[in-house]
Amino acid sequence: MGDRFKEAAHVLAACHRHPALAFPHGAAPEIIDHGRTGYLCRGEDEMTAAVARLHQISRRHCRAAAEQRFSLARMAADYDRLYRDILERPGRAAPERTATGAP
What total number of domains does the chain contain? Predict the structure, then answer.
């Protein structure tokens, strides 16, 4: 399974109020709040033990974290900020305009 698919699965799990288990690689530490929305495990034995503790994770916290981090409004605002930051960088050449004035 590719890393992107795994990361999407963690986000999807949170959106559906399910805690996630993952190894602390890739984006997993940015998606899963250890002990709050799931568990980041250093090995298979630790992951097996974490399964028994999943009932301790609040499904409400999982959904709230997903809404805070991955809502459409949040993602759009983040992309807007990123694009504006790129366009406002010093030394960046202005886009060339066509005869109609469009970039």
Answer: 1
How far apart CA 77 and CA 92 sit, in angstroms, is 22
Give a yes or no: residue 98 inside a domain.
Answer: no
25 phi and psi, to 5 degrees? -125, 160
Per-residue confidence band for 91, with pLDDT thresholds at 50, 70 and 90? confident
Is residue 37 a contact partner of residue 20, using CB atoms and an 8 Å limit? Answer: yes
pLDDT at 100: 62
Residue 13 domain boundaries: 3-87
Q: Per-residue pLDDT averaged across 38-59, rounded?
A: 96
The per-residue pLDDT for 82 is 93
Write the CB contacts of 61 (distance below 8 Å, at least 6 apart in sequence). 33, 36, 37
Pairing verdict, β 38-40 and 20-22 = parallel
**95, part of any domain:** no
